[in-house]
Every structure is written in structure tokens, then in C-alpha cells.
Amino acid sequence: ASMVIGAIPGAGGDIASIICWGQAKRMSKKPEEFGSGSLEGLSVTCTANNAVIGGAMTTMLSLGIPGDSVTAILIGSLMMYGMTPGPMLFIENRPFVLTLIAQMVLANLAILAWGLTTSKIYPKLLAVKKTNLWVVVLFCCFVGAYALNNSYVDLIAMAIFGIVGFFFRMLDLPNGPFILGLLLGKLLEANLRRTLAMTMGSYSIFFTSPISVVLLTIAILSLFLPKYNDWRKKRKEAA
């Protein structure tokens, strides 16, 4: 699933992690532990974040469309060296593509070996006080928000949404869908405008195109199927 999400233009590790975390929570035997330090949830998000790379690289190399921010930077780097990502890249620069694929395989093996050999060191990081950890995280958030556009308005917006997120936590509202909407909102609006420009303002393409109908059906099922399963489960328990 993460590789498919990575292949979608504009998607990345954040979106894949949120979606896979939500799906894992639905399928888990202990969903109440998610959001409070569940090892299962942590492993799912880390795996999804890494699995995105393959799909994003596939989209970038074959179509010349960045799958995430990392591949967008990589496209610029390739173009600086006179290589244009796309179908012709596999013909004009075949040795480079094969070398890149081999390096990705070796990189995954190296990461696996490094993770296994240093696995005993990482648990010691849990001894760090949460107050110190949150100060570092908050500092990185402020630096990242300001560095994006060099604007203090972004810092104010981040602080406001931080307060909103705090009330979300108090009201026990899930943050995942809200964050996912913020990440995909800009992409959704841009593609909606592009589609309406192609169809002269007609929305019929969303209900006549086979691909669109299949995707809409999957979205509707993913929205209502969990509620239906919960209803069936409660009915069986009551019986």
C-alpha cells in the first residue's frame, strides 16, 4: 500500500504513514493502544515511511513526475546533469538507471545490517526526559515553519493550529484525518481545477470514467465499511 501511495504524484512519507497507521489501527486486535505508544503503530508508520521511496522513485524515473519532495529535488539534480527523467531516460541513460536501482537495493541491505547491529543502542534514547525531547521538537517545528517561506505569519499559523490540535486531543478527536486534509487539500484543488478546465466545467467525468468510478467506490467503502463492521460486531456481542 505504501508503494502505491508513493507512486501517486505529490504524496509522500507523511501521507503514507497516516493512512497505514489508520488501517493498522482498524485491523489491530488492540486498537486502544494506538496513539499512546503502541509498538505496532510505530513499526507500521516507520515501515510505510521507508516503503514510499520505491514507488516515488518509480514515478519519477518512468514518468518524470515527483512522487514526493525528495524525488522533486532529485529531478532538479538530474536535469542539472543533462538527464531528463521519463521514458527516454531508460534508453539514453540505461547504465545510470541500472546503477541507481542497484544502489537502492544495496542501501536497503546496508540499513538492515546497521539497524540490527545498533538495535541495543536505540532503547537508551528512551531515557531522555520527555520535557527535553518536546523542547527540541518544538524548536525544530518553529525553525521548519519559518524556513519554508521566511515569514512570521507561518509561525503564527503553526502556533494557532498547535492550540487547535491540543483541543482536539482533549476532546479525543483524531488528528490524522485533519492532517491528511491539510496535506492533500492543495493537491486536490489543483487537480480539480485542471480537470474542470479539460471538461469545460462539467463534473460528469467523475462518474463516467472507469478509473474515477473505481477510486470513488473504494473511497466510499473505506469510509462506511469500518462503521458497518463495528455495527455487526456490536450486534453479534448483543446476540
Describe the fold and architecture.
The protein has 239 residues and is mainly alpha-helical. It contains eleven helices and no strands. α2 crosses α3 (39-63), α2 crosses α9 and α7 packs across α8. The mean pLDDT is 78.
Task: Characterize this entry briefly.
The chain is mostly helical and 239 residues long. Helix content is 76%, strand content 0%.
Write the layout of secondary structure elements.
Layout: H1 2-7, H2 13-27, H3 39-63, H4 69-80, H5 89-92, H6 94-117, H7 130-149, H8 152-170, H9 176-198, H10 205-208, H11 210-238
* Shape estimate: globular
Instruction: Please report the number of helical segments.
Output: 11
Radius of gyration: 21 Å
> What fraction strand?
under 5%
N-C termini distance: 36 Å
- Low-pLDDT runs of 5+ residues are none
- Strands, count: 0
Helix-strand category:
mainly alpha
- Give the SSE order as H and E letters: HHHHHHHHHHH
The averaged pLDDT comes out at: 78
Helix content: over 70%
Largest sheet: none
